[in-house]
Amino acid sequence: MDAKPIPAARPLPVQEIDVFTDTREVLRHAQQGARKRGFQDWLICDVDAHHVETVNWHEMVRYIEDPVIRHQAMLFHQEKTGGAPYGLNGDAGLKYQDVGGCIPHQAGVREPVDDTSVHRDVTLTRRAMQALGIDYMVLFPTPMLTLGLHPQPEMEVHLSRAYNHWLIDNVLKVDNRIKTLAYLPFNTPREAEAMIGEFADQPGVIGFCVPSVRHKALHHNDYMRCYAMLEELGKPVAFHAAYHWQDPSLATVNRFLGMHALGFAWCNMVHMTNWILNGIPERFPKLKSIWVESGLAWVPFLMQRLDDQYLMRPSEAPQLKRLPSEYMREHCWYTTQPMETVNMKALQVTLEMINAESQLLFASDWPHFDFDLPQEIYDLPFLSEQAKRNILGLNAAKLFGLDPRPVKTL
Amino acid sequence: MQEYCVGPAEAIAEGGRLVVDCDGIEVGVFRLKGALVAWHNVCPHRQGPVCQGRIYARVIEPVAADGTTRLLAYAEDEPHLVCPWHGYEFDLETGRCQGRAAMRLRPARLREDGGVVYVSL
């Protein structure tokens, strides 16, 4: 009898992934995992994903409202060498997120896109959604997340307005599965109020975003009108974290790892402390705040810390009628990423403390180096199926008023 | 256990690789210090395509006798396979995760016969 022939293995078309590799290939295993887990029947909302808006800056500046600034910005991009985005502040070359080229999708999503019928960012976002098994993806900018530190408050207004208009026209109007929380220029409260009024009903705008890297206190009286408007409209406000290496409190941290780990949590820890101790949830009980991209481990720490201190000094937070932690678990929502998973026991306690079943929202943060996949929630051994469904999509559907029926095709 | 023919051994040069699909199971075959080693293309962290990641020498930071440091360096004889999803690093020779010894790449059985490489899965 003849020996059975040995089948030939098939070489993969991509042997080494780089910045030019198609997102669908980079995330091929994610799609396999999504199919294996039956995500076709699960509503999955990704409440925090990104695109790199500076790639399109030359297009975006055409949306600047001020005719002089618009003209100067367009000339800047036509004539200036060096490639810096007009008017954007930031940390120039201190962008080491890709670990020296180890994580190519963080360095750049430079894959070929042949379809010219829609903007390239629509195609890239669709590819990521398809691979991750996402029904709705909320898109945020990336370098603009430090615009709150801009030395020219009016430039934050010019650029954020232009960005919001550009995103709506080129991305959100084209695909109703892509959403955003529109940028609010919080250094100029009157302009932020105007933006809320102007953008609340625009296509794809399901809430608003205040980047957390800023030095103006969120409890300042100047912002009360914004909060009242958002509460009345029922639109959530997200405080999206970022890092800022020029923050004096991080001045001694020399490793990007340490600065990034602390910075992304620290900005929201400070804002949350002010938010609670100044009684914003008491003043605006129906205002929905979302705390984005700080991970989760900071939440139980802050709950315990503030509860202990508050009980010894209640006269310094006279608006509070309950423990700080109770406001944090009933009035605040949190996005999952980057979910700390090395100590599963600690994670379980964290999810219990923040009332994850109703307050937690899945977020991938794709295409950043510490992105999460929906399977991280699905595979948690200590959650009920209903809790997983809530976290992966149903909590977001309720919060943003989205149709809870899955619309994707895996 | 099913055996698959990966191809001629000489096709995998020193420092090179061949990542293959064996009826849905993916394996990366690498040549390191003259020998071949094979790992499943599944990162133990989050199932990323680890064998399609870049190979870097392990980074070290030499400490002088007085306890000070000055430069970083590559340990050229310790290549690391880096998962392209999240940057988890694995010793290409042993499969051990940098910083978390209990986490390892899953090996695939490898056989070389008559200049041809086979893996058993």
UniProtKB/TrEMBL annotation, chain A:
- UniProt-listed SUPFAM superfamilies: Metallo-dependent hydrolases
User: Which stretches make up the Amidohydrolase-related domain?
Assistant: 127-402
Offer an example of a GO molecular function term for this protein.
carboxy-lyase activity
Q: Does the keyword Lyase apply?
A: yes
GO biological process entries: secondary metabolic process
One Pfam family this sequence matches: Amidohydro_2
Query: Mind telling me what this protein is named?
Result: Amidohydrolase
From TrEMBL, chain B:
Q: Which SUPFAM superfamilies match?
A: ISP domain
Segments forming domain Rieske: 3-119
Highest taxon in the source lineage = Bacteria
| Keyword Iron among record annotations | yes
Q: Which PROSITE patterns match?
A: RIESKE
Write the record's keywords in alphabetical order, separated by commas. 2Fe-2S, Iron, Iron-sulfur, Metal-binding
Q: Name one GO molecular function term.
A: 2 iron, 2 sulfur cluster binding
- Which InterPro entries does the entry mention? Rieske_2Fe-2S (IPR017941), Rieske_2Fe-2S_sf (IPR036922)
What cofactors does the UniProt entry give for this protein?
[2Fe-2S] cluster
Q: Which PANTHER family match?
A: FERREDOXIN-RELATED, RIESKE DOMAIN-CONTAINING PROTEIN
The entry sums up its family as follows: Belongs to the bacterial ring-hydroxylating dioxygenase ferredoxin component family.
The name under which this protein is listed is Nitrite reductase
Report the source organism: Pararhodobacter aggregans
Origin organism lineage:
Bacteria, Pseudomonadati, Pseudomonadota, Alphaproteobacteria, Rhodobacterales
